[in-house]
Amino acid sequence: MHPISFVGAGPGASDLLTLRAADRLRSADTLVWADSLVCPAITKLVPERCEKIRTSKMTLEEIISVLVDKQRSGQRVVRLHDGDTALYSAINEHICMLTDYNIPVEVVPGISAYQATAAGLATELTIPGVVQTVILGRASGRTGVPNNESLSRLAALKASLCLYLSAHYVEEVQSTLLEYYPVDTPVAVGHRVSWPDELLSVTPLNEMTAFTRKHKLLRTTLYIVSPALVSGPQRSCLYSPNYNHLFRPNL
Ligand SMILES: C[S@@+](CC[C@H](N)C(=O)[O-])C[C@H]1O[C@@H](n2cnc3c(N)ncnc32)[C@H](O)[C@@H]1O
Asked: Which end of the chain is more exposed for a tag (fewer CB within 10 A), N or C?
C-alpha cells in the first residue's frame, strides 16, 4: 500500500513546485485538493486517469473517508494544500485521524507565500544591523490566536512580520501595527503571488488598509511588514573582508 502524500503546492506557479511534489502529482491516481486555495494550474500536472476531488465543501470526516477508501484500494493518493504544509494547512488534524486508521503518510513541503512574496520583490527579510528575525503569524479573526501571540506582542519586536489570513481584518491590523512600527514602514502586499493575475506591491504602513480596499483584496493575500524592505546596502559579516572564518581563514 502506498502512503498518502500530503503535498505543498507552493504559492501557485507550477514551476515553483519541488521536484518531489511534481513527481507525486504526476503519479497520482486520486487528487484531493483544496480548491479554494490552490492555484488550478497545479492540478493540470496529474495524469488524465487521475480522479480529482475538491475539498472546499467537504468536512474533515468526509475528506478522511475518501482518503482512507482510496488508499485502501491501492491507489496513490495526493492530498494537496497551498504553499507549505507546515503553515495553516490543517495537515495535523488529517494525519491524527489517519493514524487512527493505521494509514501511513508522507509530507512533501512547498514554498510558502511569504517566500514567494519576498522573492517576487527581490528582497531579503533579514538585513544585518536592521532586522534578523522573521515572524510568521496572523491576525486573530474567527479562528483566534493564543493570547501570548497577540498581534501587539508580535509587533512589539519590530521584526519582519509576515501576516497570513489577515486581509479581512486589515483596519484593525494596521491600527495595532502603527502603535509599534513607524508610519512609513514598508508593507509588501502580495495577492495571488505567482498566479497569472498576481498583484504585488509595497505600500507605507499607514496606507495598508486603503491599498487593500482599493484593490478589493480579501482572500489569498499576504502582508510583510518590514524595515528590511527599505534598508540600504548593509553588509553581512559572512562576506566581509575583515571577518575570518573556517572557510576563509586569516590571510
Ligand atoms: C490557509 S493559509 C495557507 C498558507 C500556506 N500553507 C502557505 O504556506 O503559504 C492561506 C493564506 O496563505 C496566504 N497565501 C497563500 N498563497 C498565497 C499567494 N499565492 N499569494 C498571497 N498569499 C498567499 C494568504 O494569506 C492566504 O490567506
From this structure: C
pLDDT digits (tens, 9 = 90+) for 191-227: 999 999 999 999 999 999 999 999 999 999 999 999 9
The per-residue pLDDT for range 148-171, each reduced to its tens digit, is: 999 999 999 999 999 999 999 999
Rounded to the nearest angstrom, the distance between the alpha carbon of 141 and the centre of ligand 1 is 16
Residue-wise DSSP of 161-228:
EEEES-GGGHHHHHHHHTTTS-TT-EEEEEESTTSTT-EEEEEEGGGHHHHHHHTT--SSEEEEE-GG
Distance from the CA of 237 to the center of ligand 1, in angstroms? 33
Q: Which residues are the active-site residues?
A: 35, 57
**Ligand 1 pocket test target in 36, 138, 164 with most atoms within 8 Å of CB:** 164
